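Example 225, ligand NAP.
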Amino acid sequence: MTSPRTAIVTGGGRGIGAAVARGLTARGVAVTVFARTRAELDRVVAERTAALAVQGDVRREEDVGRLVAEHERALGPVDVLVNDAGILVRGLAEELSAAAFREVLDVNLTGAFLCARAVIPGMKSRGRGRIVNVTSISGTLGTAEASPYNASKWGLVGLTKCLAEELRPHGVVCVGVSPGSVDTEMLRRTPFAPEMTPDDVAKVVVFAALDAPFAVTGANLEVHG
Ligand SMILES: NC(=O)c1ccc[n+]([C@@H]2O[C@H](COP(=O)([O-])OP(=O)(O)OC[C@H]3O[C@@H](n4cnc5c(N)ncnc54)[C@H](OP(=O)(O)O)[C@@H]3O)[C@@H](O)[C@H]2O)c1
């Protein structure tokens, strides 16, 4: 495909998403970062690792619509979407509220669906594009005290594979990148030790977004040993 010129990175304010924005920008891609915390978005733009910041919540359809509209107005058509935004709520299943369970699914799974849905028509009409979903090793196994998180990530792996089949005839790639334990704010709220840096994961996301052959579509690329 022609080299992608622009990308949206949800969750681009810190952690893995900020590293992905930095990696894509270093390759000449004009990046919009999207998250809720204004100060973190502003810092990413001030460091020149993204071209544009849009503040919003992946759970809100109107925010996602505004994200794509502002990106297109400032930078042009969306060539790459990286669905990185995610949250973790820990606790034994019997102790979790339904609201907490739903919140994790809303952000990690429905949020990715809403963002993908917003860019798919443009990608299909241009006959090219890439959607990279940051899944997790937790989307391929079970972990105690993480049922909503793991369920959301198993769902995200499934969404990735379904979108890949829907978009294959239209020249659009959809691929998952599945990290192990990454040294970020999210991991610090777990008992797990870091196994890798955000930049390690970002290298694989950038590969999936820019370099991987079309044949990778539907895969869930593991970034853990
Ligand atoms: N760290 C790990 O070990 C690990 C391993 C496997 C997979 N992952 C996945 O990697 C992704 C990034 O995680 P991370 O470790 O970098 O965590 P992080 O440092 O907590 O970053 C999460 C990012 O998502 C954004 N976000 C959260 N809720 C959002 C919402 N409702 N709308 C828009 N943005 C939202 C956050 O910004 P705001 O809070 O400002 O909105 C932040 O920018 C997540 O999908 C996570 O599940 C992480």
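Summary: The longest strand covers residues 172-179.
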